[in-house]
Protein 1
Amino acid sequence: MFTRLVSLLVVYIISTRDLSHCCQVKQFAGKDSFVCVCNEAYCDSIVTEPNSLPDHLTIFQSDAASHRFSKSIISFNELLLDSDALVDVHIKVNGTDRKQQIFGFGGSFTDSAGINIKKLPAKLVDQLIENYFSETKGLGYTYGRVPIAASDFSQRYYTYAEVADDFELKHFKLAHEDTLYKIPLIKKALSVSKDLRLISAPWAPPSWLKTSHRPKGLGILQDDPGSKYWKTYANYIVKFLETYVQHGIHFWGVSPQNEPSTGLMPNWPLNTCGFSGHMMRDYIKKDLGPALKKAGFGKDKVKLMIWDDQLLDIMPFIRVILEDKEAAEYVSGVAYHWYSRLSLGNWTRAERYATDIIEGLNHWSTGWVDWNLALDESGGPNWVNNFIDSMVIVNNTSPEYYKQPMYYVFGHFSRFLRPGSTRLGHSIIKNNAENEVKLTV
Ligand SMILES: *[C@@H]1O[C@H](CO)[C@@H](O)[C@H](O)[C@H]1NC(C)=O
Ligand SMILES: *[C@@H]1O[C@H](CO)[C@@H](O)[C@H](O)[C@H]1NC(C)=O
Ligand SMILES: *[C@@H]1O[C@H](CO)[C@@H](O)[C@H](O)[C@H]1NC(C)=O
C-alpha cells in the first residue's frame, strides 16, 4: 500500500513552451475567452507526447487567457524547490483505493451534426473527424451516440415506420438522413477510432403508436405494456439495430427512450414519448428486454441503458426499474443529460462543463458522451428551434469551423482518462485558491 502526494501546478509555469500546435485565435465581443479557427489553411491539433527526460513532468495547460493544451516541462527539483509558492492545491491520491473503470468519452452523430459537417470541404471533414476521434492528434473519442430516426436536431420530424397500423413493420425503412449524414460520418469516425462504441436512442415512436397520434406534447404508447403497441415500439428498435448491422455498424448500447419524462408534460415542444418508471419497468420486462434478447441483442451484445434524461428526478425512476429483479436483469446502466445555450468563446461555460463531468466521475460515472458533434452559428439546425451550444461551430457561409473552449476542456478528460483506466480515491488537503479543484483531473 502506498499513498502519494501529487502537487498540482496551476499558473506559475515558466518552462519552455511548445508552440507548434497553437490555436488560431478568434475573439467574440463580450466573451471571456476565444475559439480556435480551423480552415483549409490551418487547424491546431492536440499533441500530448510526454517528455523523455528523467525526473521531469509534462504539463498540458488550457486557460481562459491564452492556452490550449500548451505543453510545458518541469523538473521534480523545480517542483520541490519552492513548492509553497508554486502549489495551489495538494491532492492526496490513495493508490489502493480503486474505484470505477473509465468507459470512454465521445460525441453524438445527430442529423444536424451531419448536415453541418457535410457543408465543409472534404479536407475539413477529415480534419474535423481527426480533431474528435484521433488518439494522437484529437480528443481520442471512443464513444458515440446516434439518435434512432429524428431527434430535435434534425431538419424535420420523421420516423422509420410512417405507415399507420403496420404492426409488423413491413414498411420499416431508414431515412435519407441516415444514408446521407449519419452512416457516412460514423464510418469515417470508425476508420479513425477502431474501438468506437455507439449507443442509440429513439426520440419518439411512429405517431400511430401513441395516444396523442402526434410526435410532440403529452403522449404515451397506446394500451398497456405487453400489448401490440408496446411490442411494436420494441421491435422498431430491434429493426433499427438490425438495419444498421446491414450497413456494417454494430451498436454497443441502446436506451429505450430519450428523455422519457418529457412525454408526460403537456405541450412538450419536441418529439418524445412519455414513460414513468413503472411503465418503463414493465416495457423492459414484457416487451423491449425479450425482443432484444430474441433478436440476438441481449445484454452480452447490446447494453440497455435506462433514464437517458436530465438528472432531476432520476432516482425514483431508476429505483422502480432496478429494484424489480426481472426488469433489472435486462439493464446494464444508467445515462443522464446536460445542456446549454450557444455562447462562442465562453470559458466560464467550459469550466462549468468540466465541474459537472468531475462531479459525475466522483459519483461513479464511467464516461461522458457530448451532444451534437457540430452545430451552426445559431446552434442548429433544429426543427423546433431548440438551439444550443456545441464544442464545434461550423460557419454557415465560409469554409471554416470554430473549436470552442469546451472542446479543449473536454480533451483534458478524453485524452488522459483512457478507457480501462481506474479512478483512484483522493482527498484535497490544502486549497488556497478558489476554483482550482476544477483543474485537478
Ligand atoms: C486507502 O484506500 C484503502 C482502500 O479503500 C483503505 O483501506 C486505506 O485506509 C486508504 N488509506 C488512506 C491513507 O486513506
Ligand atoms: C458563458 O457561459 C455561462 C455558463 O453557461 C453563462 O452563464 C454566461 O451567460 C455565458 N456568457 C456569455 C457572455 O454568453
Ligand atoms: C463566418 O464567416 C463570415 C465570412 O467570413 C464572417 O463574416 C462571420 O463573422 C463568420 N462567423 C463567425 C461566427 O465567426
Note: The longest strand covers residues 87-101.
Protein 2
Amino acid sequence: MLDKQDPLADKKALFALPDNVIYLDGNSLGAMPLAAKQRAETVVCEQWGNGLITSWNQHNWIGLPQRVGNKIGNLVGAAEGQVVCCDSISVNLFKVLSAALKMRPDRQYIATTKDNFPTDIYMAEGLIAQLGDTHKLTFIDEQNIVDALHEDIAVLMLTQVNFRSGYRQDMKAITKAAHDKGILVVWDLAHSAGAFEVELDACEADFAVGCTYKYLNGGPGAPAFIYVASRHQQQYIQPLSGWMGHASPFNFDPHYQPADGIKQNLSGTPGVVGMSILEASLEVFDGIDLCEIRNKSVALMEWFSQCLKSCGLDTQLESFSPPVDVRGSQLAFRHPEAYAICQAWIAEGVIADFRAPDILRIGFAPLYLSFSDIADAVTRLRDVVQQKTYLQSAFQQKQAVT
Ligand SMILES: *Cc1c(COP(=O)(O)O)cnc(C)c1O
C-alpha cells in the first residue's frame, strides 16, 4: 500500500542487492548501483587495459576530481567551482582547518562537540600538535552551540548529523551566529550528503567536507569531497601542496604555485578507479529532488516505529532518537545486548549496525528501501528479541569492524 504511493519506488531497480537481504546500513556503506559495476568494468578493462596512459586525456581522467566535485556540489547546494572530489574526510579536514586558522590569525580555538565523529577530533588534535600547541581545542555542548560561541574561536567544526543519535544541527542558524562572532564554520556532511537537502551556498557555509561511500553509494573507500565557498578561495591556502593542486602540474616547476580556485585542494594523483565508479554511482540521483528523498526517509522512519510498536518491541528497545525535525536519516535504540541483537538480526538477513557502547543504529536509504522491507525487517527483529536468539555465543563475540 505505502509502496504503491512511493514516487521513488522504481529507483530500487538501479541497485544490485542480494536476495533476501534487507539493508539498513546505507548510512555506513551505501548499496551498489548497477551503473557502478558497469563503470568498474569499463574503467579497468577498457580505459586502463586498452587505453593505458592515453586515457588521462582520452577519457578525461584528469578532469574527474572537478567533474565529480561539481556533481556532488549539485546535491549539497553548492554552485559550480566550489566542490572538488579528493582524499578522505580526515585528510580534507586537515587542509580546511589549517587554512581556516590562517584566516583567523589572532584567534586561538578550534571549537567542536565532544560527541563529534572521533576522526574529526583526532585531526584537529594532530593539527594543533603540528602547530606547536599554539592553538587549543574546546568542546561545546551539541544542544547549545550558539550560546557557547565567543570571539577567541577561529573555527567551529561541526558534523551536521550526529553519527550515533542522528541529531541534526541547524546549519543556517548556527552558521549565521558564528559569523556574527567572526568565526569560520566547517561542516562535516558525512551523514547529510545524499540523505536530505543541504544548502551550503544558501546557508553561507564557509567550508565543508563529506564522504561518498555512505548515502552517495560511491563504494568502499570511495574518495571524499571538500567545499570552499567562492568568497574565500582567494585567501585560502592549504598546506598539503601537492603537484595536482599546482597551477600547472605538467610544467614540473621546482616551486609550488597553487591553482586558482577549488583545484588547489588536490594533493596527489586521484584514485581514478574509485572516482570513476563514484561518478557512475551518482547517476542514480539524476532527476531526483532531495526533498523527495527526505520525505520518504521520514515516512520510512515513521513506518519503522509504527511496526515496532505493533509488535510490542517499543518497550524493549529504548529509543535514543531526537524528534524528526532535528534528525537525519537514521534511528537509534539502546539495549544492553545491542551488539548481539545486531549480529543475530544480520543472521536473519537484516543488516543494521551497532555503535558502542549499547546502540543499535538503523539507517534509512530511501532509494533502495521499500515499506514492505521495513515491515519484514521488524518481524525478523521481533523474532530475535522475543526468542532471545541473540544470547547464542556466536552473536556475542565482537568482530574487528563493528
Ligand atoms: C564516516 C565519517 C567520517 C569518515 O572519515 P574518513 O576520513 O572519510 O574515513 C568522518 N566524519 C564523520 C562524521 C563520519 O560519519
Note: The chain has a mean pLDDT of 97.
